[in-house]
């Protein structure tokens, strides 16, 4: 049996895949190590969303002489890439094959498993990176056709996992003392549209399960929220659901949204946000923006800035546009790279100023939060709005619900003391 080091790039869905592959490898008798130099083999779970993450992954391939197996979106989206041909590969739909591929590679074979299947993979064994958190994929792929996105080339069209399988894994995780669930996919809002169900129906079934837990619903595109708004808002108001909405807008310009092939308008995005904020005043709103999309004018960039400020966005993921291979946006007239970088920096600076003011409204807040990680000498807890709260304590607080009072605010987190 071998010692395996797993390195993961990308989103929560990729993290869930790595945990499942770790579980399968451990079940087969292999040991998992935390340092690459201790490993007989390195399993790299790759991401193709951004150019930077793909470049870091490709650098890993030539950085060391450690025996490697490649998994994830890069080989699935680009199986004929000459840089990958000498490596064994495990596709995103072939997680169950990871033990076969690893064991064959250890014997000197090159095994490639990239078949596209739609088998449910919710209840695979897993080794959680954080024992308190269950990252639970509910579907794979999406219904969109965004011109900038390469993920669909790897994850494919929407395939929703059965409610019964998701509930089964949910119950199992609760018995293993999980306190926090992250529902994840390329678009959680699209859940069930291929099977005649909805995200709200899935959540209703999960929330029937009794227990001490909270659910964080992952990224959902605005068109799906808009379609089922009256059913989704009560779900987010449930005490077992975090007051956290990840609603990617990408641009505040309707012309740019059309070029992106996004299926909503800036006005519809704002309508959803206002409806949620009216129902849930302490909502944490996360969104994604691409700065410097092809042909974006200065006026259109300012429209994005204005929209984000009006929406009072709390968490902002900014990407500088970079043309991803084999996407339609890559064939559009690109902006000067320097200009795109300037807009990215300008937006980040504006957001820091807005968000610091928003965080200051939490000063003096008292309430309950779950401690779910440690950062150097401090513990990190999350309150019902999923805001990270840094707490200094020499006690072991991991996994505990604590009462805190907010003393300081920062752009990205709060600092609290135990009450």
List keywords for this structure.
Rossmann fold; six-stranded parallel beta sheet; 419 residues; pyruvate-formate lyase- activating enzyme; OB fold (Dihydrolipoamide Acetyltransferase, E2P); 22% strand; 13 helices; alpha/beta; five-stranded mixed barrel; 34% helix
- Inertia-based shape: globular
Lateral strand order in the biggest sheet: 2-1-3-4-5-6
Estimate the mean pLDDT confidence.
94
Please indicate the percent range of residues in DSSP E strands (runs of 2 or more): 15-25%
* Main structural class: alpha/beta
Number of strands: 19
What ranges have pLDDT less than 50 throughout 5 or more consecutive residues? Answer: none
What is the share of helical residues?
25-40%
CATH class of the largest domain: Alpha Beta
Q: Give the CATH architecture of the largest domain.
A: Alpha-Beta Horseshoe
Please give the largest β-sheet: 6 strands, parallel
CATH superfamily of the largest domain: tm_1862 like domain
Give the tally of structural domains: 3
CATH topology of the largest domain: pyruvate-formate lyase- activating enzyme
Number of helices: 13
What does this entry look like structurally?
By secondary structure, the chain is an alpha/beta fold. The protein folds into three domains: 3-113, Rossmann fold, CATH 3.40.50.12160; 133-360, tm_1862 like domain (pyruvate-formate lyase- activating enzyme); 366-418, OB fold (Dihydrolipoamide Acetyltransferase, E2P). It is built from 13 helices and 19 strands. The chain has helices at residues 12-27, 51-63, 73-77, 98-106, 152-155, 163-175, 199-206, 222-227, 229-236, 254-260, 266-279, 298-311, 337-360, and strands at 3-8, 31-32, 41-46, 67-72, 88-90, 112-113, 133-137, 139-140, 159-160, 180-184, 214-217, 244-246, 284-291, 315-320, 366-375, 378-382, 388-392, 401-409, 414-418. The strands form five sheets. Strands 2-1-3-4-5-6 form a six-stranded parallel β-sheet, with helices on both faces. The radius of gyration is 22 Å and the shape is globular. The model has no long low-confidence stretch (mean pLDDT 94).
């Amino acid at each position: 049996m071998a010692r395996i080091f797993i390195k993961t790039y990308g989103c929560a869905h990729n993290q869930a895949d790595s945990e499942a592959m770790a579980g399968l490898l451990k079940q087969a008798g292999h040991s998992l190590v935390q340092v690459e130099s201790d490993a007989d083999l390195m399993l790299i779970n790759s991401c193709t969303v951004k150019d930077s993450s793909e470049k870091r992954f490709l650098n890993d391939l030539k950085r060391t002489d450690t025996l490697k197996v490649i998994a994830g979106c890069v080989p699935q989206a680009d199986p004929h890439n000459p840089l990958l041909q000498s490596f064994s590969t495990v596709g995103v739909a072939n997680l169950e094959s990871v033990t076969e591929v690893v064991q064959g590679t250890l014997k000197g074979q090159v095994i490639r498993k990239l078949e596209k299947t739609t088998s449910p993979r919710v209840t695979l064994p897993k080794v959680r990176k954080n024992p308190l958190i269950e990252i639970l994929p509910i579907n794979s792929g999406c219904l969109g056709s965004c011109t900038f996105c390469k993920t669909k080339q790897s994850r494919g069209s929407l395939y929703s996992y059965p409610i019964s399988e998701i509930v089964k894994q949910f119950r199992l995780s609760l018995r293993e003392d999980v306190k926090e669930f992250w529902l994840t996919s390329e678009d959680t809002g699209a859940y069930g549209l291929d099977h005649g169900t909805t995200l709200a129906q899935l959540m209703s079934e999960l929330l029937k399960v009794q227990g001490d837990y909270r659910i964080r619903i992952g990224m959902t595109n605005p068109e799906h929220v808009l379609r089922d708004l009256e059913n989704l808002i009560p779900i987010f108001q449930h005490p077992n659901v975090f007051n956290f909405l990840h609603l990617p807008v990408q641009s505040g310009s309707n012309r740019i949204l059309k070029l992106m092939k996004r299926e909503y308008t800036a006005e519809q995005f704002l309508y959803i946000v206002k409806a949620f904020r009216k129902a849930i005043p302490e909502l944490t709103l996360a969104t994604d923006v691409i700065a410097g999309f092809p042909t974006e004018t200065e006026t259109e960039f300012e429209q994005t800035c204005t929209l984000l400020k009006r929406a009072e966005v709390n968490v902002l993921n900014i990407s500088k546009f970079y043309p991803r291979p084999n996407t339609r946006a890559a064939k559009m007239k690109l902006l000067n790279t320097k200009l795109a970088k300037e807009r990215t920096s300008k937006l980040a600076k504006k957001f820091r100023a807005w968000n610091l003011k928003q965080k200051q409204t939490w000063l003096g807040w008292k309430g309950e939060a779950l401690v779910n990680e440690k950062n150097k000498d401090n513990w990190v807890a999350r309150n019902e709005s999923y805001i990270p709260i840094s707490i200094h304590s020499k006690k072991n607080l991991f996994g505990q619900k604590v009462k805190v009072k907010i003393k300081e605010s920062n752009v990205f987190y709060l600092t609290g003391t135990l009450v």
